[in-house]
Amino acid sequence: MKSIVILISGRGSNMEAIVQRWAAEGWPARVAAVISNRPDAAGLQFAAAHGIATAVVAHKAFATREAFDDALAAAVDGFAPDLVVLAGFMRILGAAFVRRYEGRLLNIHPSLLPMFPGLHTHQRAIDAGCKLAGATVHFVTPQLDHGPIVLQSVVPLLAVDDAHTLAARVLATEHQIYPRAVRWFVEGRLTVAHGVVTHTGGEPQLLASL
Ligand code: GRF
Questions:
Q1: For the chain, which terminus, N or C, has the lower number of CB atoms within 10 Å?
Q2: How many CB atoms lie within 10 A of CB 149?
Q3: Which residues pair with 134 in a beta bridge?
Q4: Best substitution site from 6, 14, 34 to test ligand 1's pocket, by max atoms within 8 Å of Cβ?
């Protein structure tokens, strides 16, 4: 039975989607804890209501990023996770933290990486005149919003879209692909070679909602 720790900063809708699919599908894993860097993260209430341990490591309480990262790692390690899932976790993690969990640290980013790393992805896709948008689940490496790609979703970017309508369309696909990627990981179905992730059972690593 693998152990999963999910890190959030706010709403936590991706965390909810993972918890709901885990509960419905009976993966060989348990969500051991949900940890937030913000005490007021709405997702903490959902987790607690579902009997999942919660913890807060408030970044504001630490003078340096390294001190915060160390405290966060100590909290995470308390749950002995096989997999750490960043789900709307809005702090940049230092290289030491990332290396500690290398190969077992996943993130979801609301763009078709390697396009648009960083913030304001939807507005940037609109401003660039893209006709497609989407989301990416990837293994985390020290370089922000890079790392081997596990699964991507693609949606149309419409002429009438603004950042809010596009974000909503992409978010609906995030809720499908992130639980899928987590399940693949806990089932041991992912291999990484030369920076490329393969699903060993040949399942499609693309969700196209076009
Ligand atoms: C998602 O769009 C995710 O891709 C991005 O931040 C948002 C978090 O939403 N990193 P939620 O907290 O999971 O609802």
A1: C
A2: 21
A3: 154
A4: 14
Helix (H, G, I), strand (E, B) or coil at 40: coil
> In this predicted model, what pLDDT tens digit does every residue of 95-147 receive, in sequence order?
999 999 999 999 999 999 999 999 999 999 999 999 999 999 999 999 999 99
- 80-109: per-residue pLDDT in tens? 999 999 999 999 999 999 999 999 999 999
- Distance separating alpha carbons of residues 92 and 119, to the nearest angstrom: 12
User: Could you give the angle at which helices 163-186 and 13-25 cross, rounded to 10 degrees?
Assistant: 40
Would you say 83 and 2 are in contact if contact means Cβ atoms under 8 Å apart? yes
Task: Name which of 207, 202, 3 is nearest 101 in CA terms.
Answer: 3
- Tell whether ligand 1 has an atom less than 6 A from the beta carbon of residue 134: no
Given the DSSP bridges, would you call strands 83-86 and 53-56 parallel, antiparallel or unpaired? Answer: unpaired
* CA-8 nearest atom, ligand 1: 12
Q: What digits encode the pLDDT tens for the residues 4-19?
A: 999 999 999 999 999 9
Beta strands 149-156 and 132-139 are antiparallel
